[in-house]
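Field log, afternoon session.

UNIT: design team B
ACTIVITY: writing a sequence onto a fixed backbone
BACKBONE:
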């Protein structure tokens, strides 16, 4: 990762704070690790991304319906899903700095350094050891052996003074009502993913809405993971939001549905205005698939921290529904009218983190441009995502201009998010709104009072055009529809 890239992430972090997108949680108390709050601009941006996703999933697919399941779920859910036994990361502690690291990440760091130094053969050897870790002894023992063999030092203290590698469960546990207080149960978990709420409600949804195989259930909601390495801004958080859709299909049609959804999800990212060259599909190699998956791919975005997953598309087979049948004792078979057969449905999952998606949008939109010897910072994001879509500026604070601006504000606010701002020089007002990604700014001036016109200034080109006041809404709609990254 180059210094330049890291600096770019730092700039996005500062802009996010300065312009009211993202704040560290509980900042006046020093913050809380890997937990963030969203300010006025962040809230709008997130709402717009959510809406785009919801529209693409439910409005564009008559056979996909919504759900809002609770964060708390019966503890057995997490036994059935495999999270109690298997949702672990292998961790190692630096005894000197007391910092904890993911053992596999330390090894990946070594591989990256070797590659950078041109020691390709050695890098390949370590990679092979990492790839086969867990196949002979336990995973922890194998990772520990690699760390010792190559004397990998602690990134922070530089020391080589490690504890053993141990598995660390990522679920947050909490107490539940009086029962837990009386010591009668082990407490319950905050959900680490939203998908299980969909699986346990599959029958309810089928019984109460007019869907039948193939059909999908879409859900947006919070998820919690006690991530150990969480130093990458909103890329990896302990409390985050997921947008997941589980598509229930007949066995034998799963492969086709998987390919279709992978393609659809990639198109969605492009429609969101993300530049094509910053996206790629990374299929999981067959020997790296989770035991229950038949196929899986990540959609990667080229973040300043490198190519990273932003969304996963998985063919989860009938694993989930079979497990819930087993653990709940309730039948999960469905009857398919088309083939007159009974089966446990296969599941194709699409799963994207809202926060990570928002970071992708911010990274892709962030530009610094030379303008007349000055640097302008601008977020060139899709107009449909912009937290404020239209700025309205009376040229100066005069009642005649303010009156027209207020009328425009009222007319436009039914269609767009609007900000009416009369303070500061016009140049400063443009720059402020460039920094939050406002695609269009309307200026009301004295000439316009004469001939009923205003100017519309385009964020991306900075060009201004005169438009008759009554045509403003239609011109804005046209511009937004025609926008391309
Ligand atoms: P990673 O390998 O990055 O930890 P994952 O494979 O565990 O991700 P999934 O369980 O497939 O991720 O979750 C689906 C999506 O949820 C991810 O693609 C990502 O966008 C988002 N996500 C997962 N964990 C986090 C997190 N800790 N913070 C923010 N978003 C997350």
């Amino acid at each position: 990762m180059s210094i330049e890239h890291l600096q770019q992430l730092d700039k996005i972090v500062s802009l996010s704070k300065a312009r009211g997108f993202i704040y560290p949680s509980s900042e006046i108390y020093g913050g809380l690790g890997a937990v963030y709050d969203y300010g006025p601009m962040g809230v709008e941006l997130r709402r717009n991304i959510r809406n785009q996703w919801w529209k693409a999933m439910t409005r564009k697919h008559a056979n996909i319906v919504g759900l809002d399941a609770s964060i708390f779920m019966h503890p057995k859910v997490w036994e059935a899903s495999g999270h109690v036994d298997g949702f672990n990361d292998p961790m190692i502690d630096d005894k000197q700095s007391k910092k904890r690291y993911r053992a596999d990440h330390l090894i990946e760091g070594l591989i990256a350094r070797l590659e950078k130094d041109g020691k390709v053969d050695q890098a390949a050897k370590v990679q092979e050891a990492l790839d086969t870790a867990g196949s002979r002894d336990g995973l922890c023992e194998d990772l520990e052996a690699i760390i010792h063999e190559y004397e990998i030092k602690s990134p922070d203290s530089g020391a080589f003074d490690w504890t053993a590698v141990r598995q660390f469960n990522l679920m947050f546990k909490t107490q539940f009502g009086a029962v837990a207080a009386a010591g009668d149960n082990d407490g319950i978990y905050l959900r680490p993913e939203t998908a299980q709420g969909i699986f346990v409600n599959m029958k309810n949804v089928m019984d109460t809405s007019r869907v039948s195989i193939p059909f999908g259930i879409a859900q947006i909601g919070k998820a919690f993971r006690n991530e150990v390495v969480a130093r990458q801004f909103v890329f990896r958080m302990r409390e985050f939001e997921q947008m997941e859709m589980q598509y229930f299909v007949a066995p034998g049609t799963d492969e086709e549905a998987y390919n279709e959804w992978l393609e659809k999800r990639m198109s969605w990212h492009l429609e969101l205005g993300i530049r094509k060259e910053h996206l790629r599909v990374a299929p999981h190699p067959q020997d790296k698939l989770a035991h229950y998956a038949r196929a899986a791919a990540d959609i990667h975005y080229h973040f300043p921290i490198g190519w990273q997953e932003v969304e996963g598309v998985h063919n989860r087979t009938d694993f989930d529904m079979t497990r819930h049948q087993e653990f709940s004792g309730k039948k999960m078979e469905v009857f398919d009218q088309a083939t007159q057969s009974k089966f446990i449905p296969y599941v194709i999952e699409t799963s994207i983190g809202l926060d990570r998606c928002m970071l992708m949008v911010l990274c892709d939109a962030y530009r610094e441009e030379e303008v007349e010897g000055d640097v302008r910072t601008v977020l060139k994001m899709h107009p449909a995502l912009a937290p404020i879509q239209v700025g309205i500026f009376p040229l100066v604070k005069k009642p005649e201009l303010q009156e027209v601006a207020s009328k425009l504000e009222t007319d436009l606010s039914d269609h767009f998010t609007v900000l009416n701002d009369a303070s500061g020089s016009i140049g400063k007002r443009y720059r402020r709104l460039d920094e939050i990604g406002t695609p269009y700014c309307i200026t009301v001036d004295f000439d316009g009072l004469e001939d009923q016109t205003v100017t519309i200034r385009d964020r991306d080109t900075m060009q201004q055009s005169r438009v008759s006041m009554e045509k403003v809404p239609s011109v804005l709609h046209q511009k937004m529809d025609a926008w391309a990254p």
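LOG NOTE: Residues 193, 225, 227, 236-237, 240, 242, 309-312, 351-353, 355-356 surround adenosine-5'-triphosphate (CB under 6 Å).
NEXT ACTIVITY: expression trials, pending approval
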